Amino acid sequence: MYVLSPKQQNVMNQIKEIKEKMQKERDDYWKPIVADLKKELDVFKNEWKSKENEWKAERNVLKSDRDTFKAEREVFKTERDVFKTERDVFKTERDVFQVEKDSLLLENIGLKRMLIH
After folding, report:
1. Residues sharing a CB contact under 8 Å with residue 4, sequence separation 6 or more, in sequence order
2. pLDDT (tens digit per residue) in 12-54
3. CA distance 56 to 28
């Protein structure tokens, strides 16, 4: 270790003071800018959170609507199946009537032949 002369010590002190002064000036310049940016960031975060909550609420409404439509679709499918079953019953009845009609026509033809001969 070595000892500085008073002149060297004075120069070192001046350098130290200049550094401190420059740091203070930098801090004084940047602190308000950083504070403003932090405020803007907070505003942006709040707006973003608000929008995010809106989107979540809209999504929940859409999900609810989708679930309602799915339930309605299931009801319609059930009704359709009932109608299909009824249609099949009517087709079966129609087929039975057709067979009866054909049988009666054949019987009628047979009777006509008997009357003609």
Report:
1. 12
2. 999 999 999 999 999 999 999 999 999 999 999 999 999 999 9
3. 42
Q: Are 12 and 4 in contact (CB under 8 A)?
A: yes
pTM value is: 0.54
- % helix, strand, coil for the chain, step of 5: 95, 0, 5
Q: Are 30 and 23 in contact (CB under 8 A)?
A: no
> CA–CA separation, 116 vs 109, rounded Å?
10
**CA dist., res. 21 & res. 43, Å (int):** 33
The structure tokens listed for 31 are 């602190």
